[in-house]
Amino acid sequence: MARTPFTKMHGLGNDFVVIDARAQPAPPALLSGGGARAIADRRHGIGCDQVIVIERASGADAFMRIFNSDGGEVGACGNGARCVGSVLMGETGAGEATIDTASGPLAVRSAPHGLVTVDMGPARAAWQDIPLAREMDTLHLDLALDPGRGKGLTHAVGVNMGNPHAVFFVDDAEAFDLARIGPKLEHDPLFPERANITLAQVTSRTNIRARVWERGAGMTAACGSAACAALVAAARRGLTERRGTVHLTGGDLQIEWRGDGHVLMTGPVATSFTGAFDLDALRNGAAA
Fold it and tell me: Do residues 172 and 262 both lie within one domain?
């Protein structure tokens, strides 16, 4: 297979291998689960949380395909959208861009101080939209881990931000072994499409500390859609205002849940390096 150019980018440490397939479609093997896993592998591949493929689109500046590090294709990635949006705006010199995704179109625009804002669309909270396996109150999900113990998790809030999220409010987000409990909660039968799991510690009416276990990617330094879900969940519970800062392991994102239901996320993007890889070599365990 020919060598494929890529750009390594990240938003607050949530990192991506970005492949531009607008001029020449990406080979089918590249878009398979095995191909994405080989690229994302941090020992034998390039290493990333998600592989993002930019494709041509009708009615938008580009279409963004997203593959988690486990090879599964997903519909939303807020930090990834900001990275792709920065690429598109850099090409045109415009201050805004539209990205189509499997979960719908996203509007991206430049923000002061070199930051990028993405409109993640409306937050959805109906049980069938998250989706859940059965009807229930999404402000108090029937989901618990180690209930009754000193550091048990109960009564998560369900939110869909283009992907499913369960947000647990805790007194101390650092007090849990999220790498251990995240997979159990992600795969709970309540979530037919699995779920992103967030531990949210509200520190003021405008500040939330959040740690995230990402569906299909594991522990990540920052998850944009989870930051949106955390703010929406907190505001729904009456714990915060509808605008605030979510403090993730990799840094801060500014989140606003507008009156029309749309959620805006603002934060930095960065390019780490560029290169090219041979997918066959990655699959064989060779260096890129």
Answer: yes
Q: Can you give the pLDDT at residue 211?
A: 98
Question: 86 near 147, Cβ under 8 Å?
Answer: no
Tell whether 149 and 102 lie within a shared domain. no
* Domain tally, the chain: 2
48, 77, 83, 228: the active-site residue? 77
Tokens of 80: 């990834």
Residue 228 annotated to the active site: no
Query: Is residue 161 included in any domain, yes or no?
Result: yes
**How far is Cα 80 from Cα 12, in angstroms, rounded to an integer?**
11
**pLDDT at position 151:** 67
- Taking only the tens place, the pLDDT of each residue in 157-198 is 999 999 999 999 999 999 999 999 999 999 999 999 999 999
3-state secondary structure of 262: strand
Catalytic residue among 48, 83, 223, 228, which? 223
Residue 146, pLDDT above cutoff 90: no
**98 and 135 together in one domain:** no
Over residues 88-101, the pLDDT tens digits come to: 999 999 999 999 99
Residue 14's domain comprises 4-113+269-283
Q: Does the annotation mark 48 as catalytic?
A: no
CB 124 within 8 A of CB 130: yes
Do 201 and 277 sit in the same domain of this protein?
Answer: no
